[in-house]
Structure formats: structure tokens, C-alpha cells
Amino acid sequence: MNSRILSLLGLSRRAGKVVLGFMPTQAAVAKNKVEMIIIARDLSAHTREKVERLSLRKNVPLFEVPDRLELSKALGCQNLAVIGITCKQMAEALKESFSSADR
Predict the structure, then answer these.
(1) Non-local CB neighbours of 24 within 8 Å, separated by 6+ positions
(2) CA dist., res. 54 & res. 5, Å (int)
(3) In this structure, are residues 21 and 80 in contact, taking their beta carbons and an 8 Å threshold?
(4) Is the pTM higher than 0.70?
(5) Can you tell me the distance from the alpha carbon of 61 to that of 72, in angstroms, rounded to the nearest whole number?
(6) Which of 55, 60, 65, 78 has a C-alpha 20 to 30 A away from that of 35?
């Protein structure tokens, strides 16, 4: 994961624009409060399937990071595999960063 993505995730957390964990993210998506979902690549297959279905059903973009360790470290948490970004501007900046990281 590149440093820009890590920085944006940390900034989102400090700004209170992140929902941490599967259940809180699921609840926030149900209330149409999540602009994007980010999951760790090492997420369990069962949870991954649930998140993917949720993303498709509610039309929320889904992005993936290499592993839960990096995601957790960027957000100052432990063992975090699913997050929701609630700020539209931050979600757009992250989408751009993910796109440029894929190039």
C-alpha cells in the first residue's frame, strides 16, 4: 500500500470519517452513510462474500489493501479487516490514490 493511501486513511481516522469493523460498517452502509468500503486481502472468505454482496446491493465502491496488519497500523487499531469511509471527499481522494497505485 502506498504512503498516500496510508496518510489518507490516518487523516480520515483523525477526522472521525471512518467506520471500523464489519458490523459497524454494515450498519452505516444500511443507513447510506458510507461512501466506500475498504477490506484487507486476508479477510476470511465468508466475511469477504458478505462485504461484496453488501457493496453490490448498496452500490458502494469496494477496494482492497494487501493485509489487515497494514490497514490496522494505518488506523491505529489491531486486527482490522473492514472499514467504511463516510466522507465523500476523502473517498474520492482514496479512489484516486488506489487508481494511481494500480498503474
Answers:
(1) 84
(2) 23
(3) yes
(4) yes
(5) 20
(6) 78
Q: What are the tens digits of pLDDT across the range 39-93?
A: 999 999 999 999 999 999 999 999 999 889 999 998 989 999 999 999 999 999 9
For CA atoms 43, 45, 50, 52, the dihedral sign is positive
Amino acid code (one letter) for 65: V
Q: Structural domains in the chain?
A: 3-102 (3.30.1330.30)
Burial of 82 (0-12, 13-18, 19+ CB in 10 A): buried
Crossing angle for the helix pair 45-58 and 22-30, to the nearest 10 degrees: 10
Distance from C-alpha of 100 to C-alpha of 26, rounded to nearest angstrom: 28
